[in-house]
Structure to design on (255 residues):
């Protein structure tokens, strides 16, 4: 099995090293194509306004001066065009990708791009107990449980245009309660805070904060599973059509 690894935290991210060690337990044919710099929050963005460059670091290790989506597209379409991957693993992200936050996630979007290309794709994220830890986020849960979570998925039929999103709770490996297959949850409140600052010239600037968002997790959701100490495994469908609403919307135009 040929595996392509990518992420949104960049080629030098600690979580990518963890993912490489996990992938090594599954295959001896592992490739890395990741952004040259951090692209957290990039979502499913594609670089269109300037050229994207590829840098080779080792025999099967490359960085891309673009987004996670760029990395997957160039990985499949250029770097591995003659040796197409059988599996794409994106992560291990530094921080959670739960609920509606997946819409911002470059980690999940890289798996989306792989899925669109017809390659089995999985996103993996390590939840942190607190924000602002930088590279100090502990990946012990992902390291210890990664192979155990991934191996049953290798031969499983995901279905058309479906990817899998995995989150590891912010616990030691021994504290994890197990693996739970759950649906995507949704937060109760708007996205985190906006932090205002002033530069030395007196001009205001703003950071989008990542402070914890209060939520009441619905039952059988990824938010609830993580809160209860389980690894969350969520199949996600790329078809965003609301089929239940189609009939009512057609009636609006049919008069």
């Amino acid at each position: 099995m040929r595996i392509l690894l990518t992420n949104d935290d960049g080629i030098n991210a600690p979580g990518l090293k963890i993912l490489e060690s996990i992938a090594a337990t599954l295959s001896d044919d592992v490739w890395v194509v990741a952004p040259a710099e951090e692209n957290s929050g990039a979502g499913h963005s594609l670089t269109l306004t300037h050229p994207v460059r590829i840098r080779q670091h080792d025999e099967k290790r490359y960085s891309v001066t673009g987004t996670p989506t760029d990395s997957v597209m160039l990985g499949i379409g250029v770097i591995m065009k003659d040796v197409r991957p059988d599996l794409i693993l994106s992560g291990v992200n530094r921080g959670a990708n739960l609920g509606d936050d997946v819409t911002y996630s470059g980690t999940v979007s890289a798996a989306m791009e792989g899925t669109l290309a017809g390659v089995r794709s999985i996103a993996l994220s390590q939840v942190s107990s607190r924000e602002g830890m930088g590279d100090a986020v502990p990946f012990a849960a992902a390291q210890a449980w990664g192979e155990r979570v991934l191996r049953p998925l290798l031969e499983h039929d995901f279905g058309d245009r479906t990817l899998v999103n995995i989150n590891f709770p912010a616990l030691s490996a021994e504290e994890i309660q197990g693996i739970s297959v759950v649906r995507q949850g949704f937060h109760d409140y708007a996205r985190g805070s906006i932090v205002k600052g002033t530069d030395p010239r007196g001009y205001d600037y703003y950071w989008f904060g990542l402070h914890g968002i209060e939520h009441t997790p619905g039952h059988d959701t990824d938010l609830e599973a993580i809160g209860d100490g389980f690894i969350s495994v969520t199949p996600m469908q790329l078809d965003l059509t609301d089929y239940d609403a189609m009939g009512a919307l057609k009636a609006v135009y049919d008069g």
